[in-house]
Design a protein that fits this description.
Blueprint: H1 3-18, H2 21-33, H3 41-57, H4 76-88, H5 99-109, H6 112-124, E1 129-132, E2 148-152, E3 155-166, E4 173-179, E5 190-196, E6 202-207, E7 216-227, E8 231-232, H7 238-244, H8 247-274, H9 281-309, H10 315-339, H11 358-366, H12 376-387, H13 414-430, H14 433-438, H15 448-457, H16 475-487, H17 494-507, H18 510-517, E9 522-525, E10 528-529, E11 532-533, E12 541-543, E13 546-555, E14 562-569, E15 575-580, E16 586-590, E17 599-608, E18 610-614, H19 616-654, E19 656-657, E20 660-661, H20 666-691, H21 699-725, H22 736-747, H23 753-768
Parallel strand pairs: 1-4, 9-14, 12-14
Antiparallel strand pairs: 2-3, 3-7, 4-5, 5-8, 6-7, 10-11, 12-13, 13-17, 14-15, 15-18, 16-17, 19-20
Family: Belongs to the acyl-CoA dehydrogenase family.
Domain Acyl-CoA dehydrogenase/oxidase C-terminal: 236-388, 631-759
Keywords: FAD, Flavoprotein, Oxidoreductase
Amino acid sequence: MGGGAVEQNTTAVLEATTGDWRDSLAALLDDYRKRPRPATSRERFEAAKAWQSELVDAGLAAPGWPREVGGMELSLEDQLDYYRMTTLAGAPKHPCGLSFIVAPTIIVHGTQEQKGRFLEPLLRADEFWCQGFSEPGAGSDLASLSTRAVRDGDVYRVTGQKIWTTMADKADWIFALVRTGAPGRGTSGITYLLIPMNSPGIEVRPLRDAAGGHHFAEVFFDDVEVPVANRLGDEGGGWSIMRTSLGHERATAFLADEFRYRGTVDKVFRLAAEQGYANDPLIRQELAKVETNVRAIAANSARALDAVLRNEDPGGVASVNRLVKSEFEQHLHRLALRLTGSGALLNTRSEGVVEKGRWTYGYVMSRAATIGAGTAEIQRNTIAENVLGLPSHRGEGRRNPVVAPGRPLTAPEADEAALREVLGDLVSSYVDTEKLRARESTPGDYDIGLWDELVKFGLPGLTAPESLGGGGQPLRLLCAAVEEAAYHLSPVPLVPTAIALEVLVAAGADEPARTVASGATAAFVVPIDDRGWVLDSGLPVLDGGRLTGRVERMAGAPVADVLVLLATDAATGDRVLVSVQPEDVTVTVQNSVDLTATVGIVTADGAPATVLGSGQNVDDALVRARRVAQLLVAADSVGVANRALAMAVDWAGQREQFGQPIGSYQAISHRCAYLLVGAEGARGQVLSAADCDEAGPDAVTSSNLATAAALSTAVSAAEDCIQIHGGIGFTWEHPAHLLLRRAAANEAWIGRPEVLRDRAVSEVFDRLS
């Protein structure tokens, strides 16, 4: 098909997108739902091809492609909606996913003739593609490829071998990297060719995989003639074309994966229920992990796509997501196989196998996830050396990091970026680690000077309504501010005060809320255990306007100007929210494991109290406030985790052992890579949860999982930071233990990660039922 077909398709796209494309797609999907489902794999294959042509004819294919090449050119939010709609409808995906690796490359680097020739048949699934990159001697080390192409007039003569070539036996074309320059290892002489698979001299030998199928093959080239017109870009420019041409569809492929994974995770939850494992505590923790990971992938995918749509390189996030996705697939299928119980004894075609053997097959096939397209070990090297800027393990020096370690991998929106920069500079100018260590002798104190500066900045009332003197800003910005303060180990009661303010605002207690928003420190006093806030026992009692009771381990209480307490009304038995003057109660300072924080016992013995709310109003306020409180503690932990990452990478790059930086040893660099994966993943989940509509069905689940991830990540990151520093990290003078202390305190403050995960699993089961 030539340019005329592309123009015809572009007209269809314009007609679909100038109206409401959602209506057009919804109508097509509604029709699809009514059709009988194909019974065999062959029928499913043919149905998927036919569906692609329907989408093209309707102008509803390729949501991220530019319009001039037949795409819909939708915004990020619209693309998310597109994939949600098609996934929920159960519409088949394109039967040749590899086509969407070469497609953006052709869009960015192809000639008009190449675009007209290749894109529409590719989009319709009339022609299939396979990828010719890996070779027997050049798998993860692709720069060592040796397949040779020699120019002979208007053709190249290609000789060599490719391996692990997926769908080679079904493909009409192969996009291949070949060496046109000098032999040896190097990237400057590599060229990108588009080669017909029916060319004389091509031989395909299928390879049987571990699951018993034939998904990939060896491809041999024996003096194969390829027209020079089939070269993509300049001769010798293939390496940069391969690395830089992510394009719209490559990025939106992240989103397609996200929705596919979402559906598979839901199937695993249902499998757990059907097999009787829904209440098994160990299985529930594993389910929570896969649910957390699919959300981390979603957050990373959206950020990568957002970067692409802003014409920025998503390389850092893309590298992290690639590793996370490959290991997630293995964990998911290993858990699913476990859930089949003794059914795991049976092969895929055995009588009595669970769900026709899909989980047995999926588990075996998932072993390729951390091998194909670059092994997990190579991905860790890439993250350590290209993203974090650690010394090369091959002795090739150092590259500049994508961003300074510990900072967001993708540029935030302008308001968030400005907040982070200004607040980070402000807090760092006040905080001195030597003074922090000295706080051990003054456990009931805080940095009043820094607090006053934060109040001038608009904290802690950044998200409070403007009518109460707050900033009226979204929760995401407050989480970013808390993260920055924690990153620099600020010794102020920012999080306890912000939590108390949220409780007051949620309960409609305007006057005390206005006081806190204007700069007063505050604490919300409520018993805590592994579940977080304890709302059903151990509360102080309000009787005749007087409060009696004792609550221990209250963060921020020793320095609070405003004390907000949850109590039980002696007359009605209802929960009531009250405030007391600090001088009317006894606040006993306890020694906090976190030297940057304060903690104390609040004892009331007939203290006069002001009722701020009671009954259902208080219960509703606590539900709303607990979600925010969790995310604020989580954001604090994200700051700690990323500071630990920054310190570890800095030390790994400067400390030498056996004559070279310890960061060049893969044992260290891979640990740093996982530090980044965890810290950046926690940040993405917390900010994504903060962006959720608080009234939405997923808001609480997102908060529980994001908080659990952040709390656990901060502790493990601080522990790894000490380990990477070695002996010096385990000294009182080194600040690493301050991070560990703050992370450990956070983990005990708002609910243990295991409990939060278990709570989230119950919420997912409820949603699916």
